[in-house]
Amino acid sequence: MNKLKEETVEYRMEQFLRANFGNEFLHNKKVIAISCNQFGDTGKGKFVSLFSKWADIIARVTGGDNAGHTIIFEGVEYVLHLIPCGITDPDKINIIGTGTVIYPRALLQEIIFLKSKGFSCDNLRISLKANVILPSHVVLDRLGESQAGKERIGSTGKGIQPCYTDHVARRGLTMNDLLNPEVFRRKLKKALDYHTMIIAGLGGYEAAREIMKCDHLENGKFIGRDELFNFEAIVQSYLQYGKELRGIIEDTDAFMRHSLGKKNILLEGAQGYLLSIDYGTYPFVTSSDCSPAGMAKGAGLKESDIDVSFGIIKGFYMTRVGKGSFPTEMGDKSSEMWCNEGGDREKEKSMFIGSTLNDTNSFAQGVVLRRLAGEYGATTGRPRRTGWLDLSLLRYALDGGANQIILTKLDVLTGMNIIKVCHSYEYAGPDFNYGDIVLTKGDIIEKAIVLPEVLDHCTPLYKEFPGWTEDIRNVKHFSDLPENLINILKYVFKNVPATPRIISVGPGPDDTVFVLPFDLN
Ligand code: IMP
Description:
Distance between the termini: 35 Å
Number of strands: 21
CATH class of the largest domain: Alpha Beta
Number of domains: 3
Mean pLDDT: 95
Structural class: alpha/beta
Bound molecules: inosinic acid
CATH topology of the largest domain: Adenylosuccinate Synthetase, Chain A, domain 3
CATH architecture of the largest domain: Alpha-Beta Complex
């Protein structure tokens, strides 16, 4: 049955944009950024695909194939790692910008996969300045993690950190180098010499050879006979990638700047503010700046070019993948250990059978939440650590400017009796100097200080709310949401400098409540 025009998500979105941002917004060409205000995995994919209907250009601007965006197109689920979510529409231009790092094999595999599903990749453009991930970057990443012991970050093992490190150390190779064999050879030699020296210093030759046998590194193709790396094999593979990508590698920075004011531009974030190299919970972060400022830069634009900055959070809970502080984690250290050291989706299927979201054991409650919400890494399959919504961290993340909030996954909490929201922390550690402030035991912290030395000693202070039991999946209007849900929402937004704009009540595009100005009265 055809839907009435008023019921379509496209129509509702247009009304929403008009009501909240003015008629002018729809008549002039604008820039929208969608980023995450938590630790990533907040469901950006759904909203980037939704807003790609509005956009002419969709640009993925930071990170690499460490990211994973799940989108649902015509009822089918796709996980994209590098290619922007606009690729499902052949009329849109999709950019992979200068701020990204690209493993060309992963990119080509994604292109082949998408083409096999009937999507055209003709309108895909790759920045000639994006840095290239080499096999040796992947080796360095995995070797470094395996030798780091307790200091391990829990990286995705995709070579992201060593690649960005080389960029900053002025040793990086760019996508443009794939088009120029002599330049590529010269720069590769320099990079491989350096990488080999580091690996030798770590005493990691054997381990490096083992790592290179994995499928991601083409089952040993890059293992050298006399040298650690097979220089010629890498040259051949990468120049071949260059040939296949020729025609779509271009100066996207110039294109983006030229398109300002002429096209609607959507900047697609990756990871989350709290994982930003510059603003996140350093050192437990990724190696790119995934804040709105970093996104603009990664696209070749200025932060002031962004007209509306949406920031996504999960609806009253949070997740984190890998290591790092997480004060509101359900199950505390046991959860962190389980998720980082051996726990997986298969094993969890048979755990706490019969438990519900209301289990009084918080570790079990976290596992049930993870299972119900499908909180397993889209890239690594690892269990995501689960915890309560943390307003101290949110207040901090909002300094990044993404204060038009999209709340996702609210349907997951249906049936939870008590929902806890962390409004601040009590500091419980030894005296600690934070610039000119001395933190002392018992201090109340409203806005998080994102150092592990502080966060690990913060006891969350919670306000508890009764949950809701009503099925919210089909709700389209704010006023139809359960009163208990609205009460929590009002509390959250009374306590943080941001406005709720969109509420996601299910995975499909239709399962979306657009908040209109009068809803908040
Ligand atoms: P890397 O980005 O692979 O270097 O990993 C550094 C940290 O960022 C690790 O804790 C990862 O789990 C985390 N991370 C990287 N990409 C994502 C993502 O897309 N979602 C959530 N966490 C991520």
